[in-house]
Write a structure and sequence with these properties.
- This protein is of the alpha+beta class.
- The protein has one domain.
- It is about 40% helix and about 15% strand.
- The protein has three helices and three strands.
- The protein has a three-stranded antiparallel β-sheet, with helices on one face.
- Helix 2 packs antiparallel against helix 3.
- The longest helix has about 45 residues.
Length: about 160
């Protein structure tokens, strides 16, 4: 048996294959981790952009008065569409799985008629990150990401 180990230790025929078999799983794991983390950060960025866009829209809205007639037609549904899709007409969701009304809160729900210097608009959004099939088994319930944005109320 000792002679066999001595003979194997002196041969170099399978060294490259052995090193590859040891290193390849580690490199694949690191690559998948980078892709998953990048996807998560992209979805978080899209959540932030949606919440900020909705806050920007809502901070510039003023409710209709008798004198304005149809001049301005701001409503919460348009703000939500802007947050979820990036467009007041709707379209594809910014973040996969984001679009439930309960995942976006806008405060105040009705724009102020006469804003003061302390009037603020607060929009907060929450989405559950759905992992890719490679990593979904490690995080079965997903990761909840939240973001809020506060802006001074301007009106028109």
């Amino acid at each position: 048996m000792l002679a066999l180990f001595k003979k194997l230790s002196q041969q170099e025929d399978g060294v490259v294959l052995t090193e590859t078999l040891i290193a390849l799983p580690v490199l694949i794991l690191i690559s998948i981790t980078f892709v998953e983390f990048g996807n998560m950060m992209w979805q978080r960025q899209q959540l932030q952009a949606g919440v900020e866009d909705a806050a920007r829209y809502w901070s510039r809205c003023r409710p209709k008065t008798g004198a304005q007639e149809d001049f301005m037609s701001c409503n919460v549904d348009t703000a939500r569409l802007i947050a979820f899709t990036g467009s007041p007409e709707g379209g594809a969701s910014r973040v996969p799985g984001w679009g439930d009304i309960s995942e976006l809160t806008i405060s105040p729900e009705v724009p102020e008629t006469r804003p003061t210097k302390d009037s603020l608009v607060l929009v907060s959004g929450t989405v559950t990150y759905r992992a890719t099939p490679w990593t979904a088994r490690f995080v079965p319930d997903g990761i909840t990401m939240s973001y809020y944005h506060q802006m001074r109320y301007l009106g028109w």
